[in-house]
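Handoff note, outgoing to incoming analyst
You'll be picking up this chain. Sequence as last confirmed:
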Amino acid sequence: MAGALRMTEAQFIGGYEHDLQQFMPYDYIPVDIKTEPFMPETAHGPYIQIIEEPKQRGFRFRYECEGPSHGGLPGASSEKNKRTYPTVRINNYVGLARVEVQLVTHTDPPRVHAHSLVGRHCVENGTCTIDIGPNDLTASFSNLGILHVTKKGVVEVLTRRLREEKKRLKGPHCHLTDVEESAIVKEAKELGKTMDLNIVRLKFTAYLQDSTGAFTRALKPVVSNPIYDSKSPNASNLKISRMDKTCGSVLGGDEIFLLCDKVQKDDIEIRFYEEDEDGCWEAFGDFSPTDVHKQYAIVFKTPAYHSTEIERPVTVFLQLRRKKAGDSSDPKQFTYIPQVLDKEEVLRKKQKPLPHYEHWRGGRGGGGAGGFGGSGGGGFQFHQEMNGAGGGAGTGGFFNVSFSGFGNGGGAQMSGSAPQSGAAQQQQQTDRQTGGQSDSPLRQQLLQIAAALNSRVSQSARQTATALLQYCSTGDARVLLAIQRHLCGIQDGNGDTPLHLAIIHHQTGVIQQLIHTLLSSQQQGIINTANHLQQTPLHLAVITRQVKVVEVLLKAGADPSLVDKDGRTPLHLAALAGDHNILRFLLAHLGECHAHLVNMPDFHGLHPLHLAVRRDGERCLRLLVEGGAKINEPEQKSGNTALHLAVRENLFKVACLLITELRADVNACTFGGNTPLHLAASLSSPTFCSMLIAAGADKSIENDEPLFFSSSSSDDEDEPIREEEKEREVAPKTSNPRKRPAGGHTPLDLAKCQKVRKVLSPSKSPKSDRRGSGNIRPTTSSTEEVERAGLDEDTLSRLVNVLSVGDVPWKKLAEKLGMMTLTHLYQDSPTPCRQLLRHYKLGGGAVEGLVEALQSLGLTEGVRLLRNAELRDDKHNTDVTVDSGFGSQPMEDVEPPAGVQ
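Most recent structure output, in case you need it:
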């Protein structure tokens, strides 16, 4: 039926019976169902069919003040030179008939819609009717327009229509009771909450004549495809225009920038899926509404693949999909690559390769070579190729160094010169026979060079032998390294020097010997040599977590400012690993010349402080701030501070530490103007929202994302602003230097969770005053509220002194306050009791609760201190309020304001 949605009788009746049970306590039939029973559908009986669907996108719903549409609703196949319109046909019937069309919702089953159809054949109740037949039973609706009802008027329109239908069913002169009126209003409100004003469908119902000529015999209706308002974000087709990555780790977590056509930030998801013979797998990209930039770009993190043990790349698909409508974009390929366990290649280099053995070659030794333990037989012949390194030889050649006397009772004796080959001896004998007649200046020069080289080789061999004897006597390998000092900077195929390899294999003794040799031979530059991954020995010492080696390298002059392939210094790597021992040592040895490293970004724009947050390293955060790290410094990609990252990663303990102990700014803004409260609201976290508000977060700050966008097309520039947008402008706003003319989003605008909306709503909360005071006043700064509640800094410090004098274990106090789950937060703090009370204050804890805890511990002095603080505050202000943090949980019982509904 040309893609039409036909409803079976069971679906139609069953759906409405369900709705009647849910929303209608009184006995009546909804407005979108006729009182006449539908004719049973038979194999050859009459039925209605959609032969031309309406055009789904590109048609604009218009408000009453804007006048009629420029042309009617076109058909799906309509073209510039060939206009078509929504058309239906009655099959298997001859005679007169009446076709009625009305607007319904896109839900299943469809419900009556608040919008109305307007046009040539339309009436005031929003329906259109055409009489057809007896020969041509095709009905084409060529002049349909859709009248958009404002959000403010939805309930009123639905109430009026339901009331009219009720009266029509009961009779023209009936009177509705108060119970019926309240039931109608209730149903209209429930229906208005779930209704999408940007999507409608057409429902066509055909009526055949009965024996009296009246059109009472109704055929089963058919419903068209959804029609989207062209001004709605959901009106455009979903399309992925560009991605900066098409592959990522099988573990997920890779950040991808995706450009797309216009989307609605709270109604879009990124679906990863794979379909094979084993079934279908799907997962969704991780992002919040604040990660959708002006409805045209999304920054998200990839989900993990269902199997992390893949051995080769796996290709899946990703697509944009609307949460409500369910429509999706064309899929794009994405490749998951196997997990890389050894990014720094340390484990690979630790693996010892199998040695390659040459085939044994028997027989006697080469010419002239003295034997080991015997006279000349079976000896080894050593060939050393001189390539100019260390010895100063400028030319290459092979020299036979002969050792003799081993096993014959003497020491190691080395000949003064290298033995000559048989060809050379024969040549010398010939020269003697000819009396040197063939001598030439060139030949004499070559012989002199050969003699000098032989002398140097002989000297090197004697030094090596002496060093070997000394090593055998003392066990000190430094004497051998001193002989080979010119080879200490040699690099292997990975660019690693001997010092790199010693660190990789945790050879601490060898490391110290190598460094001693390098320093004694004035080769300090080798200590800062980088391999092919731009890793210096100090980088590897931090990666392998060798604190002793880090200390030795720094004392030997290792440069802590050198960066690896990711732009990270050893300080970055220590923060990323969460190794507070190495981090403490690095910070202590930075000095003034390297003090800037603590606030230096890597190639990804992250400071050591940001890396420590991602690692959940609370000790590292303390050390970095003590070492000079700026707590509110933003990372360079999107302007997130450490507190933003803690909220985004759902690290509640870290966020508490940043706010209470490290004094992070709770109102710091990203490049897009989002505060941590914006992120917490968009992530639907009432806990974070309460904590941030209690710490002084401003609920009225607007980000840089306008609430609405002006159209770029010339046709839409003169169109009036939607009514709901006008309503937003009427609401008074506090002065904000970041505010744009159009107005940005506040945290409340980004909140979709009802609990979060209640926390963020500017509602009044009465104080639980022990004297029963009924005074209520609007809340102001949350920090001021907490301080006025009797737990200001002075009172807190005095209370800590009282607890220290009373020698009260802070864990017992935490148990009395119900904060045992957070005790691990305070164990590393130098003043755990102070941090405990600060967190209790930050969470909006009531003073009465603290008083009860102190009374149970027998601390009457602390109770007296808090009572005196309350009396002092009451003299200045008798109508204080409870802060809107954890202490305002009774808001759950308060009806949210109309703007929140």
